[in-house]
Amino acid sequence: xxxxxxxxxxxxxxxxxxxxxxxxxxxxxxxxxxxxxxxxxxxxxxxxxxxxxxxxxxxxxxxxxxxxxxxxxxxxxxxxxxxxxxxxxxxxxxxxxxxxxxxxxxxxxxxxxxxxxxxxxxxxxxxxxxxxxxxxxxxxxxxxxxxxxxxxxxxxxxxxxxxxxxxxxxxxxxxxxxxxxxxxxxxxxxxxxxxxxxxxxxxxxxxxxxxxxxxxxxxxxxxxxxxxxxxxxxxxxxxxxxxxxxxxxxxxxxxxxxxxxxxxxxxxxxxxxxxxxxxxxxxxxxxxxxxxxxxxxxxxxxxxxxxxxxxxxxxxxxxxxxxxxxxxxxxxxxxxxxxxxxxxxxxxxxxxxxxxxxxxxxxxxxxxxxxxxxxxxxxxxxxxxxxxxxxxxxxxxxxxxxxxxxxxxxxxxxxxxxxxxxxxxxxxxxxxxxxxxxxxxxxxxxxxxxxxxxxxxxxxxxxxxxxxxxxxxxxxxxxxxxxxxxxxxx
Length: 490
Hints:
Layout: H1 6-9, E1 13-15, H2 22-30, E2 34-36, E3 44-45, E4 63-64, H3 71-74, H4 76-90, E5 101-104, H5 108-118, E6 124-127, E7 138-140, E8 152-156, E9 169-180, E10 183-195, H6 210-213, H7 217-220, E11 239-241, H8 242-251, H9 256-285, E12 294-302, E13 308-314, H10 324-341, H11 357-361, H12 366-376, H13 380-390, H14 397-401, H15 409-422, E14 428-432, H16 449-461, H17 465-472
Parallel strand pairs: 1-2, 1-3, 3-4
Antiparallel strand pairs: 5-8, 6-7, 6-8, 9-10, 9-12, 10-11, 10-14, 12-13
Helix pairs in contact: 15-16
């Protein structure tokens, strides 16, 4: 990879946060970014989630690792509310991958009814709705054990998990969303497998043993019986790499491809559940959609039938690397993520303090100008085309495929962006859009033209992407400034 010219390297500024993990700091340092404490000249930041109005301060060339409104799946209570809404609308056949859940105090009467129907042998797991690292989690079976503090999430306990060497475990799946409109979702092909450090028992007497029932590393590392594992290829100790688990299960004759497909299905549907909230807040508070991207940590458990269940979604998944195994998995994931992020270089004149003369009169970089203008200022022909296809929700595939017959300039811009991004995916797999993801379009609360466009493109050209390039007139690439993502390969 050739280094950027010195003048452009000066623009590589990164804003550190108190929560920026070391794996991010090391990747940034290797990529020739310099740390800045100023608010106006940074290109990237890995920091806290913030209240939605705070996103208004982010400039068009800056990129923060969150979307406004992503807490709608990142908070446990909001996640279950939104998935329950989807289940009520589309049925259990499509949305039956999360345990029955109740948010207290609102659902206390519903919980009492379900509790009585299930009988005394049913176990329940209780969680504070906004906690992390296993804090405040308990497994109970008596109504009298229910804590008085509120709010509280109460779920049916998945009491028949798939066991390995007698222990339960969960999977940490890394999901990266580069855009919400159009929706583009990637899953990293490796991840972590976190084991409980005490062999599992379904006995009621064992419910207070957190090392048996809770899989969080931050809980189990405090057990004297906890066995670390530093080898990402080895199936040993209480933490494995996801790829090692797949090898282990394959050797037992398990169809791990099918499990992965089911996990992809869960991920896509869960992200779609957050779509109406995130998109409305992005339109309200974000100057340019380029400025937001987000890494989610999905916690998935496999039951005795190897069916995956979503336990929770983390909007700031831990990137602490306590062993060579963590470094190998998370380090590669972050390198590939920053390549996918596709940081762009602004024009030098754009990077000025707010309110300065040059800042107020300068034009944005070619990329940002095109992205901001085209995303908001569609021609009348483009508006007519969008309205036409969105008005035909129940048309057949032949009709929808015709969206590619005559591409508008904005169609081309979005397709170029998608194809450029796809070329930088590394070990991430794009799961939406994909050749088979059109089936998910009906789950969106509001149909989105760009989702239709990208899904049709994927269906037509996924086997031969080069074939689509002349059809699309990809000469539009020349308007895009250098992408610094390739620097992260160092």
